[in-house]
Amino acid sequence: MVKIAILGYGTVGSGVWEVLQKNQTSIDRNADEQIRVKYVLDLRDFPEDEVQKYIVHDFDTILNDDEIKIVVEVMGGVEPAYTFVKKALLNGKSVVTSNKELVAKYGAKLLKTAKEKNINFLFEASVGGGIPIIRPLNQSLTADEIYEITGILNGTTNYMLTKMSKEGLDYDEVLKTAQDKGYAERNPSADVEGFDACRKIAILLSIAIGKQIDYESIYTEGITNITKADIDYVTQMSMSIKLLASAKIDNNGVWARVSPVIIGYENPLSMVNDVFNAILVKGNVIGDVMFYGKGAGKLPTASAVVADVVDAVKHLNRNIMTAWSSEKLDILDIDGVEVSKFIRISYTDKEKAINAVKNLFGTDKIVFSKNNDYEFAFITNVETEKIINDKINQLINETCVSEVLNTIRFEG
Amino acid sequence: MVKIAILGYGTVGSGVWEVLQKNQTSIDRNADEQIRVKYVLDLRDFPEDEVQKYIVHDFDTILNDDEIKIVVEVMGGVEPAYTFVKKALLNGKSVVTSNKELVAKYGAKLLKTAKEKNINFLFEASVGGGIPIIRPLNQSLTADEIYEITGILNGTTNYMLTKMSKEGLDYDEVLKTAQDKGYAERNPSADVEGFDACRKIAILLSIAIGKQIDYESIYTEGITNITKADIDYVTQMSMSIKLLASAKIDNNGVWARVSPVIIGYENPLSMVNDVFNAILVKGNVIGDVMFYGKGAGKLPTASAVVADVVDAVKHLNRNIMTAWSSEKLDILDIDGVEVSKFIRISYTDKEKAINAVKNLFGTDKIVFSKNNDYEFAFITNVETEKIINDKINQLINETCVSEVLNTIRFEG
Question: Would you tell me which of A197, A259, B37, B218 could form a disulfide with A245, CB atoms 3.0–4.6 Å apart?
Fold first, then answer.
């Protein structure tokens, strides 16, 4: 029998508790060992709940109990999670976590500590909720050189963009619905500003290249500027708009970006709707492979956490994680990255504005709004971000153009 | 350094050779060990090819060379593959295979032998080509009770159905195109009759339940009866038709089936087009999770084979496969399985035929053909296969009905 402790009895923690009870028989069979919770750490008490008799308030009770072989950290946030996890590993206890902030910031260090102690630090649930992606990247795609990872890694924003697209609603309306349904927090910035997706792509890229990516260096743009008017054009073009977290690896180096992107229906990510997540991985041998499922939620996330616990039980004194070193890798400046953009402008003189666009951008991909006669949009050729931004600045100076209403990255 | 032998220099074998050369550096890094080919077994010689100096014609050369730690079997077919693989395992050599016939028939036995010798028998490439599915089922979905696995497991038929749907072509036309493009064999029956998909779902189900499923007991219907007229209705209903290989596990037992199914756009499998494959797995905790990618082809299949070789190298003297015992599990008779069906009929008297359908089947889901005034289709309620078939036999006896033109399973 293996005794474990759960740190935090919030949404994920109570999900882990529930899954361990619900599927006890099959989980024990898969682990070839009985897995039982001995402690649940939380500041609160839960007098009405069966869990109460396992509740402890002091982490040291867990840390100093040699019977505890695995600690499940599902508190979230960097502190005190980092201190607890570090101490647990140093005391020879394997750690399983769903905490993306912790993993993005200290993943490499904690993996190193786990390796030194010949135990494990596992974090499948930190990216893509229940979707298996960390283990496949580590263990299944080992014959390939991975050159791109692009994901829909945030369910809240995907729900919002899907609803805007399907029901023709504006940003504020769908945000309110998402909040009412519990998909979005009262302070939604971690989701809608792209910060959540940014930490997750940093983790995936770090694993793919085996080096530390500083997530603060990743260009991150959320969905707060996406309007009903933008979506109308996207629908009119029979395309789809998604918040994509992307990382590409080529001979020049590595870059990463989180931003809304207009994509065509031949891109399998275009079919990923509502709260679902998906991660598309491209390898030089395997081609495109995609992993799809529920990227958040109590039970799907708990499923990934408990699967990691099973793996930790099967490898109690054997380190199984591949290398992700603390050596930092600087990513390329986004300015130099080539891209195409969808640009919406309003004008004072339509014909002159069209000519200005054609002259400056060398494109004739112009899309006229069905709903508004005072604006149009165009699709640029593929050029660096910097060149496109310089041209936008020149365009604004033309007297025939009133305003650049929005710019959105475009993959035709 | 670990020395390996490849049995068979056909499509997959030459792909494995190519991948091992192309990505040698990254593969060696992932395996933490140099992996080098010492022998390639083939009856033929390849005098123009660099591989020639590794070619041997006698399996015993490989079998009796203690330096060979891993044998890659990519010949296909049951014999002599089975004899070679068994001998290799008994001689202490781990085996990696892409051979679905071999795995479906002898997987449990070969896993047992590998376990007894504390080595490995790995077969990720036998289902879904490059798509990671065997390893995720074994190692990532261990917290769940899996209650359904449904896949598009054959790229040839998916290409054909996609092309029929998109271009309004008939079966014979797309078969010819598929053969011309090399997607279908000159004798296409293994693909179009569903036999290929049948072996693959048998493997997935066997792993999910840990017992032996006799693939010959799985109801298997191919796509040879699907016509342009059927597809017209599917398009008219804004739905999609796919050859699905399905297995379900519930309190009554286990059943499996390969057949064309009409599915709605909310089913993520509906978005899987052309030669792509996908496997949708449903667990009682994780919900729906889908794995998508190229299900066949030289390099994607070789990617999965080589990833297994890397795993075998990392576990040279340690068995890692979960249990799939030789204990046989009988699957439920398809007659008792509940289903809804799309049924096309022609009539001598339209109003009477409609009434007969309504009376017999208790449904008012009737779809009139846009192209043909001598037929219509209807969707049955969910009932057992047997009850629906009995009602169809009664319907044929009505004088107002001329013919049942086709019946296709339907999941609305």
Answer: A197
Q: Which CATH number fits domain A134-294: 3.40.50.150, 3.40.50.720, 3.30.360.10, 3.30.930.10?
A: 3.30.360.10
Where does the pLDDT of residue A112 fall: very low under 50, low under 70, confident under 90, or very high at 90 and above? very high
Residue A296 — pLDDT band, cuts 50, 70, 90?
A: confident
Mean pLDDT value of segment A161-176: 96
Partner residue facing A145 (CB), from B26, B135, B142: B26
Q: Is the pLDDT of residue A115 over 90?
A: yes
* Mean local confidence (pLDDT), B186-209: 96
Burial of B364 (0-12, 13-18, 19+ CB in 10 A): exposed
Which residue in the set B132, B142, B304 is minimally distant from A30, CB to CB?
B142
Taking an 8 Å cut-off on Cβ atoms, the answer to whether B140 and A141 are in contact is no
Q: How far is A95 from chain B (nearest CA, A)?
A: 17
**Other beta carbons less than 10 A from residue B293's beta carbon:** 28
Distance in angstroms (rounded) separating the CA atoms of residues A82 and A79: 5
The first and second tokens of residue A256, run together, are: 């990463």
Please give the average per-residue pLDDT across A376-383, as a whole number. Answer: 98
**Interchain CB contact of B139 with A (< 8 Å):** yes
Query: In B333-374, which ranges are E strands?
Result: 338-347, 366-368
Q: Which of these CATH numbers, 2.120.10.10, 3.40.350.10, 3.30.565.10, 3.40.50.720, describes A2-129+298-314?
A: 3.40.50.720
Write down the CATH number for the domain with range B338-411: 3.30.70.920
Residue A261 confidence class, pLDDT cut points 50, 70, 90 = very high
Interface membership of A47 toward B (CB under 8 Å): no
